[in-house]
Amino acid sequence: MENSLMKELVFGHKNPDTDAIVAAKAFSYLQNQLGADTEAVALGTPNEETKFVLDYFKEPAPRIIKTAKNEVAAVMLVDHNEAQQSVDDIAEVQVTHVVDHHRIANFETAAPLFYHAEPLGCCSTVIYKLFKQNEVTVPAKLAGLMLSAIISDTLLFKSPTTTAQDEQAVKELAKIAGVDYETYGLDMLKAGTNLGSKTEEELITADAKSFEMGGKKVRIDQVNTVDLNEVFAREAALRTAIEKQNKENGYDLFLLMVTNIMNSDTRLLVVGEPQETVAKAFNVKLVDNKADLPGVVSRKKQVVPPLEKAF
Amino acid sequence: MENSLMKELVFGHKNPDTDAIVAAKAFSYLQNQLGADTEAVALGTPNEETKFVLDYFKEPAPRIIKTAKNEVAAVMLVDHNEAQQSVDDIAEVQVTHVVDHHRIANFETAAPLFYHAEPLGCCSTVIYKLFKQNEVTVPAKLAGLMLSAIISDTLLFKSPTTTAQDEQAVKELAKIAGVDYETYGLDMLKAGTNLGSKTEEELITADAKSFEMGGKKVRIDQVNTVDLNEVFAREAALRTAIEKQNKENGYDLFLLMVTNIMNSDTRLLVVGEPQETVAKAFNVKLVDNKADLPGVVSRKKQVVPPLEKAF
C-alpha cells in the first residue's frame, strides 16, 4: 500500500452499521501505522447495536461528515464502493484506497488506485488479513471492535455470507480482546433489535441502501428482530412511511427485509413497482405485498443478486 | 483467495501486450497452485515484443478466445477491468477474480468478488506480490516472463508509472530466471519497435484501447519506436487508416501516441473531435493535428487522467 503525505478521510457507507464504523477505524489505524495521515469518520450516527459496541469497548463515536471536499482532496472507502452509498460529493475527491466485501457497481476512478475486495462475510475480516500481511499488531480495543463487526455482519456465523476466514478471525481477535465472543455476540445482536423506541421512519432508514437495477431506483432496508410479530404489528404505519419516502426520494421500489436473527428467516414487505419482478426474483407469491423467505438473512448474497437477475 | 471447483479462464485485455499475456499465465499458475482449475488464454495474437519474449523463454503462445460463455461460467481478469477492453460476452459470465493496476471504470458485478488492484507500474508486479503473500514459488521460466512484462510496461523503469516495487520485483525475478535484465530488457524493447514490416492498420490497432469520456468514444493507441521520423514518414497513410477506423467503429476521437523509448518523449497525432479538449488536456497547441509531449510515455498515467479531466 502506497501512501501519500496529504491527510485523507476514511469512511464506510451511509446509514452506517457496525462494520461501516469499525472498518473505517481499523483501516485508518492500519494506514497510519504504515505512515499515512488519515482520520476515520462516518456518514451518519451509530445505530443501537454499534452504540452498544462503542460503549462496551469505551471507544468514542467517529466524527460525522456530510461532504469531503471541504476538508481533503482524497479519501479511502471501506465496506462500500457504490457512489449512491458514499459521501454526497464523492465525485469531487480522489479515491486512493478501497477495502470492501461487496459487488462492484457504479464506481469509477480517473486514476489507478489500491482496491482490495474479497468475498468474505465482513469487511473487517478483509482488513484483519491486511493487518497480518503488513505485520501490524491489532491493539486489544480494536480487536474487540473488529470481532463485533464480524459478528454483526455474519449474525454470529448464521448468515450464508459467513466464511471459515470470518470465524477464524473472530476466534483470533477474541483472544487479543479477551472476550467470550459467543456470550458477548448474542448480547450485542440483541441490543440492535431494540425496536420499540424507534419511529417507523427510523426503522425504514437505519440500515437502508440504494441500488440501481434495470433503470429503477431500488431501496432495500433490513431490520433485525427477535420477534417478527412485534414489527408487523406496525405494518400499516410502516407502509405509510415507506410510501412517503418513495415519493420524496423517487424510489420506484422499496423492499423491507424483517429478519428474525434467532431462526434466520426473513419476511419481506414490498412497496412500489414492479412487484412481479420481486415475486420472480424469489420465486414466491406476494400476498398483500408480503412474502416469507425462509433461510434468507443476507441482503448482499440472497436478495441483491436474484433481484438484479430478475431485473 | 477462495476458489471454486469449476474450470475458469484467465485473460488480459484485447490487443494484448506482454503484460496482458504474461499476467494471465502467472495468475493462472498461482490459482492452480492454490487449488483452482484455470487456463490462461488471450484475446488476440502476441505482438512482436511478446513473440520475442515467448521465443526467448521457449513458452508457447496462449490459445486465443473470441467468447467465454461457450466454454465456462466464470472468468478471472488480469491487467484490465473495463468491459470494452474485455472479451465480447463479458456481461454473460461471472467475474470471480480481478488483478489489475489500472483505474476502475465501466466495470460492474452482481455478486462480491476477489478484486486486487495496486497503483504499480505493471500487473505482473502485483501478481508477484500475491505469489509472495501466498508463499508460492515462481518457477524460473515464469520469472523470466514476468520480468519481461514489468520491463515492457515500465519501459525499463523510464516510465513515470514505475515504482520502487516494480524495480525490486525485476531484480528478484532476474535472479530466479538467471538473466541479465538490463541487456535482455533493451533487446526485448527494441524487438517491439520493428515497425517497418507492419501495415498502417496494424500500427493503429496493435496496442489500442477504448475509453468512454464525456459521452464520447475515445480510442488511444501507442506505438513504441527508436525513431519518430520513421513513423511520421507514414503520417498521411496513418491518418487515412485512422479516419477509416473512426468511421467503421464509431470512434469520435483517436489519439495515436508515438513514443520514443530511447528519450521517453511522445508525439501525438489526433484525429477526430473535439481537438480543443485534447489541446486543453495537455496544455499544448495542436499544429496540423500534432503535438509533442516531452517526457510523456504512459497512456495510463499521463494521457488518460488529464484527458478524462478535460472532458
From TrEMBL, chains A, B:
Record keyword Hydrolase present: yes
Regions annotated as coiled coil: none
Cofactor(s) named in the record: Mn(2+)
EC number(s) stated in the UniProt entry for this protein: 3.6.1.1
Binding site residues for Mn(2+) 1: H13, D17, D79
Domain spans labelled DHHA2: 185-311
Swiss-Prot/TrEMBL catalytic activity: diphosphate + H2O = 2 phosphate + H(+)
Subcellular location: Cytoplasm
GO cellular component, one term: cytoplasm
Free-text cofactor note: Binds 2 manganese ions per subunit.
Main subcellular location: cytoplasm
PANTHER family in the record: BNIP - RELATED, MANGANESE-DEPENDENT INORGANIC PYROPHOSPHATASE-RELATED
Protein name per the record: Probable manganese-dependent inorganic pyrophosphatase
